[in-house]
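Recall that a protein's primary structure is simply its ordered list of amino acids. Everything else, from secondary elements to tertiary packing, is in principle encoded there. The following example makes that idea concrete.
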Amino acid sequence: MRLDQAVFKMLAHNDTGAAAGHQGGIVIPKDIARFFPPLANTTSSINPTVDVRLKADLFIDGVRIGSVLTRYQHQTWGGKRSPERRLTDNLGPLRNVAEKDDILVFVKDLDDDAYIQLRLLRKGTDEYNRLYSSIGEKRWGLVDPSRPPVSWEELTEAEHYLEEKIVQPADAFDTKRKITHSGTIHRARNRAFRRKILEIYDSRCAFTGRRFASPLSEGLVGLDAAHIIPVSSHGSDHPANGIPLTKELHWSFDQGLIGVSTSRTIIVPNIVKQLAGNEFLCELDGVQLREAHVSSLRALDTAFEWHRRHVLIV
């Protein structure tokens, strides 16, 4: 799970369970809707609601109270009103204790589009007071304006950016790329890079072939996408500069405890093998690298050569 930065809404009376009549959940203002999953803008009398299902972990004053399946939708009340973005379904445990002017914080997962956290901060608590003192007169917005979440526009742009990379000749370096992109662009491109790497390796670790999948979300896999040459050293976002690794092997690769030879087998330096606790790494020494199933996107020898020269411990 890689949680993004948060947005908030100070709840109106109609967002709470105390509202009269049949209120339809929590209204999501347009200004923060760009950080939620995209919804089609078209509704009709035949199709009065456009929605996506989300898994939501619910928190009240920092305590997790449960996990529910909720719905984010354009609601039109049977096509009789203009579409309004709302979170509905199964939010009673949170809405029924919420009061007007409590603050609800929303946090999405950059790896799982179908997941969100809803954190209710009730008036009078320390966390509420800290956030309230920083938001001024705002009823909704960014929890930390200096660290915004990634918008869906940025995620879409990052996917297009990577697709343009793929059709270009594979190159381990990108000297034209700015190293100091904004945080949101960096996170969006990392997400697009990871998705493509997992796709071309069938979501299996390039060193072990292991795959860790969650039954709670289709496509949610516990693997990292490692840049062989890091972006900080002008490494490219082309998939040929990446391999999927488990988190502990990603760390080991970045620290130079493990690498790849000219024959594309795994190298574990003797000095690393001699350390107690590295038995698992020792077992990988000499194992053949698991390759991407798209030959044009396989990791470049030049990238592994750079890693051997500049990172691998000798």
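The CA atoms of residues 53 and 71 lie 5 Å apart. The longest strand covers residues 63-75.
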